[in-house]
Amino acid sequence: MHDDLAALLRRRKETIGDHAFRDRDPAAHLEALKSVSEEILAWHQAHRGEIPARLEHFLTNCSFDKALVFLESGGTWTGH
User: Fold this and answer.
1) Which of 2, 7, 54, 67 could form a disulfide with 58 if both were Cys (CB 3.0 to 4.6 A apart)?
2) CB within 8 Å of 74: residues ≥ 6 apart
3) Is the pLDDT of residue 19 over 80?
C-alpha cells in the first residue's frame, strides 16, 4: 500500500537521523531534508481523495512518522 510514499517517509526519517551528514554539511543536510519533504507534499497533493482518511489526516498535519507507522501497519492505526 503506497510503497512510494513509505519510501519517501523513510528517506526523510533517515535524513533527519543522519547526524554525521548534518554536522559535516549543515546546509546540504537542510537542503536534503527540504527536498524529501517537498517530494512528500507533492505526493500528497497528487493523491488527495485516493488515500484513507487517517493517512490524509497525518499528511495534512505533517505527522510524517505517524503516516509511516500507518503504512507499515497495513493501514491500521492504534496510536494516539
Assistant:
1) 67
2) 1
3) yes
